[in-house]
Design brief:
The protein is an alpha+beta fold. It has 2 domains: 4-175 and 294-375, Zn peptidases (Aminopeptidase, 3-Layer(aba) Sandwich), CATH 3.40.630.10; 177-292, Alpha-Beta Plaits. The protein has helices at residues 4-12, 24-33, 96-116, 139-148, 201-214, 262-280, 301-314, 329-332, 357-375, and strands spanning 38-41, 49-55, 59-65, 86-87, 90-92, 122-128, 155-158, 170-172, 174-175, 177-186, 190-191, 228-235, 243-244, 247-256, 283-292, 295-296, 319-321, 338-340, 354-356. The strands form 6 sheets. The chain has a 6-stranded mixed beta sheet with strand order 1-2-6-3-7-18, sandwiched between helices. Strands 12-14-10-15 form a 4-stranded antiparallel beta sheet, with helices on one face. A 3-stranded antiparallel beta sheet has the order 4-5-19. Helix 1 (4-12) crosses helix 3 (96-116). The two termini are 21 Å apart.
Length: 376
């Protein structure tokens, strides 16, 4: 039996801060190969990725990542961020929650399952080192390699932490879209004592961000809450009180549901920008960056399979949610039906990130039950 907590500890001790592999995927490749998985490294650019398959035929897939965010101020940690120290039933370390424990749980479940009760089908694991980074050479690269090599998954479970407070509380059947909009307003510099001789971009920007932040994008849809827009920065870099600056910048972040697309929201933002440009006689430039479109895997056999296993193992029926940020499920959804279920994520990305050891074992049991039920 593979101990998922020990495997979590081994992975935490690999300092795999994006995009450094840190030995994490090498470790997993060695372990998986030992029980008959065929492993292929699908590295691209500075990013390391691992594809592993056992068997042929009907395929259940898992997806996850071993890269982690930086530790930040090391002095603020009470433990070694890569030490996997255990205190009071919790294991500490960067990636303990997000998401080396999730990877360890599904790797341990898969290894034991193919060793003890070989399924009449196959298991595929896609593990990336680029989820916390630009996410252009990670799961995307794996899926492109799979397509080029005739590799497929019939369904996939992403092992990201999904539960807000209690194990079994929530699973994800979709995610909101995410995009950033960057505005640059250019007027004419002048003396603050003679504002009529200048074109001040600041009132224009103030008006623009006020309009955007007060707009109601929608009231929610069947599976999603209302879309949101947040102004995250306004920058002018003017330290002089007697100068009206020529230019100011602002960034807004949008999280949107399936009533919109990145393209439709870009069009709306451009319309607002054009109106401000005309009203204030200034130049307004807009650039957008779309991290991912919204998607939904409507309740189906896959979500019922996962929910049933969670309910049996935790005595909780998970809420089917689309809340939270983005994940690599946004890429997998173009390949096959995908849902997400994992641990409680309260401490992810925090100082002294930690995971309850009992929950790692519980998660392995859930994943094992999912595999058994899927292949039965």
């Amino acid at each position: 039996m593979v101990d998922p907590a020990q495997l979590t500890a081994d992975l935490i001790r690999c300092a795999s801060v994006t995009p450094v592999e840190g030995g994490a995927l090498t470790l997993l490749e060695d372990r998986l190969s030992s029980v008959g998985f065929t492993c292929t490294r699908v590295d691209r650019g500075d990013v390391s990725n691992l594809f592993a398959r056992w068997g042929t035929g009907k395929t259940f897939g898992f997806n996850g990542h071993t890269d982690v965010v930086p530790v930040g101020d090391v002095a603020a940690w009470t433990v070694d961020p890569f030490g996997a120290e255990i205190r009071n039933g919790f294991m500490y370390g960067r990636g303990a929650t997000d998401m080396k424990s999730g990877v360890a749980a599904f790797v341990a479940a898969a290894m034991d399952f193919v060793s003890e009760t070989p399924p009449g089908g196959s298991i595929v694991l896609t593990i990336t080192g680029d989820e916390e980074g630009a996410a252009k050479d990670g799961t995307v690269a794996l899926l492109e390699w799979m397509q080029a090599n005739g590799e497929t998954m019939d369904v996939c479970l992403v092992g990201e932490p999904t539960c807000p407070e209690n194990m079994g509380q929530m699973m994800k059947i979709g995610r909101r879209g995410s995009m950033n909009a960057f505005f640059k307003i250019t007027g004419q510099q002048g003396h603050s004592a003679y504002p009529h001789r200048a074109k001040n971009p600041l009132p224009a920007m103030a008006c623009l961000v006020a309009k955007l932040s007060s707009a109601e994008l929608d009231q929610g849809t069947e599976y999603f809450d209302a879309s949101s827009l947040a102004v995250v920065t306004i920058d002018t870099d003017n330290t002089a009180t007697n100068i009206i600056p020529a230019q100011t910048l602002s960034t807004v972040n949008l999280r949107f549901n399936d009533a919109h697309s990145g393209a439709s929201l870009t069009g709306w933002l451009q319309t607002q920008a054009n109106g401000i440009a005309t009203k204030f006689d200034v130049s307004v430039e807009l650039e957008t960056s779309i991290s991912g479109e919204s998607f939904i895997t409507p309740p189906s056999a896959l979500s019922e399979l996962v929910a049933n296993a969670v309910q049996i193992e935790t005595n909780r029926t998970p809420e089917m949610s689309t809340s939270g940020g983005t994940s690599d499920a946004r890429f997998v959804q173009h390949h096959c039906p995908v849902v997400e279920f994992g641990l409680v994520g309260k401490t992810m990305h925090q100082v002294d990130e930690r995971v309850e050891i009992a929950q790692i074992h519980q998660l392995k049991s859930i994943y094992t039950r999912i595999l058994r039920d899927y292949f039965t």
